[in-house]
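pinned: reference chain
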Amino acid sequence: MNTLGDLASRRNNNFNLIRMLAATAVLISHSYPLAQGSTAVEPLSSWLGLSLGELAVITFFCVSGFFISLSRDRAPSNLDFFSARFLRIYPGLTLVLLLSVFLVGPIFTTLGTLEYFRSGAIYSYLSNNLMLFSMKFQLPGLFENNPWPGINGSLWTLIYEVTLYILVGGLGAFAFYGKGPRFAVFLLVYAIVYVAFKAMLANTELLNELHRAQFFFTWSLPFVLGMALYRYRQHVQHRFIWFLPLAALAGWAYQTPFFFECFVIAWTYLIFYLGFATNSFVDRYNQLGDYSYGVYIYAFPVQEILAHQVKGIGPISMMLVAFPIVLIAAMFSWHFIEKPAMARRHGFAAQLGASFSGLKAWAGMRKGTV
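pinned: its structure tokens
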């Protein structure tokens, strides 16, 4: 019987397709509020308590937890690891931000061109979103009369993703993926802090103060589960029957305070079962490339443009019109931005290493002359 460890050592899997389906699910989910306003009911949310978009984000994070851990485990150093992570996110992100500010903004803003470019808000939009902290989702005079104003609300997940990359880098630096109980200690500490935090949330007076931390714990859970599946991959069997008791547990916990956690555990195992259940069709799909990140970062701006240009457009029409446009943008992003950038990760890491060594030597010389 294959374990996840056996299957992860092979190159063929279904995760490119799973990520693409998750990115498409975000587009579908966002079509409702972008077409009908923030009060629109998104798919799944009325009975599951999670929207289709949130289910997609859970999928992204659990898959990332596994494969980012694998990336750190195989990287020669944290410098190589973080160089690869930087090149996976920032080239594509930088382009979509520049296009939003210098192409979409001037065309669709209600402000005059000079007034728009004189606004400090467009430059803080660039700087804040590149730093990922205190992210901004609106540009001056842009789509203010749309049902759900903004320019790229999907980018909010990136700060949590990068924070979890830092966590993986820290654990990797201390060999948490090696032998011994150290990773189990990390899981125990995480579980204790998670439960303690959830108990704190019962005090509604603290909700506003703990909003950002609440988001972190919500989305770190599937990521940490993905990390755990990677760490113990040689002991986790790839069998659908393992999903059934987890699904039953989630069903039992439905409409209880523990439903989210039980559901995420079951969903995470299902994603990895499906991800490693390979077939020839999906193998051919994998040769096309990984368009999921491009779909994720371009869908929201395209949908906002449609909501602005086609007043009263419905959610279904928005999905059908937006998807092919977004797919073309994602294909361009992958083949001309993301993939070439990732191909330079080893050289980029070597250049950074040389720069750090040079700075260290210069600092040593300065210290010797003082």
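why pinned: The chain has one domain: 4-362. The chain has 16 helices and no strands.
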